[in-house]
């Protein structure tokens, strides 16, 4: 029987669980393109901590787009910055269209104006003179691409950008400017969908800074951990599909182990699957699988610890001593601070990385199950 779990960065699970709302939003946008030839929906910004499934969601969005006849182009921003996002988009777009019999050139861009061949109508906006960030040729290329796709019976173009926190400003400004220009049209709009994905705060803020009215252009979606029902399905259904079966107690134990963290679902799932007895998974198999997965799980903890600032590490120790859940004021006092505001920046940095979560106002918990025990075992004596 083939293994039904796929741990590793960017690998897609057997089935994308717990993201129905996001998929429905995308489906409505694709339907708009198919039925009306355009959409008035805001473009998407998807943010979430590492391991929560952003890349997997982008892959599913791309697959759904292709199924609906919309050309999907996925690109990943480089951490090195040697190649701009615009360059990566150009190359990916050319590769996607190279086998097409391209039709005649459609429309043109005048001072960053979107122009279409329908009735010669155009919307035009003057940009700042000599604006070094403006690349009208790039924007025109995207507009032309939407028409090329539509001329061959497609519905439009979907551009999906991963690791947006590493995107260069000029590229984001041009993409946002084009999205704004298209949005201002009352008539025929080039059928272009944008979806940016990346780490919390950094991604949304970076995209927001690329547009003077981002709140009208983009809709931000934050991917969290899976709820218990979705976690259960993410463990149960792949095993069933592969011909295996869970005992009820074993499945409940595995759900608790993962804490709903998608990366842990795949890590624990694979280890447990490999130790199954025949086609059966019982509580003993889960215990053995948890032990087998431990080195890889601890690599997540170690990575989170290493990335934390000194004050953040001290906060993690204090949180672990408090049983894994504490109010901000309690953490501040444990660290010898008079106010929670003195540690808020460090806790926020931990939250952005998914090391801790804030399930309610003023309350902090560990973001990954088992990390409290790991911190006490490895770093309890460390202080700021």
From TrEMBL:
Segment forming the signal sequence: none
Residues in Orc1-like AAA ATPase domain copies: 17-182
InterPro entries membership: AAA_16, P-loop_NTPase
Pfam family, one: AAA_16
Protein name per Swiss-Prot or TrEMBL: AAA family ATPase
Lineage summary: Bacteria, Bacillati, Actinomycetota, Actinomycetes, Propionibacteriales
């Amino acid at each position: 029987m083939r293994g039904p779990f796929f741990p590793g960065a960017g690998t897609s699970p057997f089935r994308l669980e717990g993201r129905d709302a996001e998929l429905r939003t995308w489906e409505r946008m694709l339907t708009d393109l198919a039925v009306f030839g355009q959409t008035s929906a805001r473009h998407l910004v998807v943010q979430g901590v590492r391991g929560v499934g952003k890349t997997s969601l982008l892959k599913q969005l791309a697959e759904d787009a292709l199924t609906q006849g919309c050309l999907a182009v996925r690109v990943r921003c480089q951490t090195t910055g040697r190649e701009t996002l615009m360059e990566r988009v150009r190359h990916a777009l050319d590769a996607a269209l190279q086998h097409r019999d391209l039709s005649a050139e459609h429309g043109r861009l005048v001072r960053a104006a979107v122009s279409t061949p329908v009735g010669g109508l155009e919307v035009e906006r003057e940009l700042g003179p000599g604006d070094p960030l403006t690349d009208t040729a790039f924007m025109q290329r995207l507009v032309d691409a939407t028409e090329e796709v539509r001329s061959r019976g497609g519905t439009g173009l979907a551009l999906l950008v991963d690791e947006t926190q590493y995107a260069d400003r000029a590229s984001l400004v041009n993409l946002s400017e084009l999205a704004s220009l298209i949005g201002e049209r009352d008539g025929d709009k080039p059928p272009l969908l944008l979806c940016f994905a990346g780490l919390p705060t950094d991604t949304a803020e970076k995209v927001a800074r690329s547009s003077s009215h981002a709140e009208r252009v983009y809709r931000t979606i934050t991917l969290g951990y899976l709820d218990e029902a979705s976690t259960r399905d993410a463990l149960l259904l792949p095993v069933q599909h592969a011909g295996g079966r869970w005992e009820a107690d074993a499945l409940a134990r595995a759900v608790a182990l993962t804490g709903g963290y998608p990366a842990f679902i795949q890590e624990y799932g694979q280890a447990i699957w490999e130790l199954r007895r025949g086609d059966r998974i019982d509580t003993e198999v889960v215990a053995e699988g948890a032990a087998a997965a431990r080195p890889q799980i601890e690599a997540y903890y170690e990575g989170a610890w290493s990335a934390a600032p000194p004050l953040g590490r001290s906060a993690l120790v204090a949180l672990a001593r408090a049983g894994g859940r504490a109010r901000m004021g309690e953490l501040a006092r444990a660290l010898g601070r008079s106010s929670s505001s003195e540690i808020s920046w460090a806790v926020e940095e931990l939250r952005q990385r998914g090391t801790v979560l804030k399930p309610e106002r003023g309350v902090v918990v560990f973001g990954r199950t088992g990390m409290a025990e790991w911190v006490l075992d490895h770093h309890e004596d460390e202080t700021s």
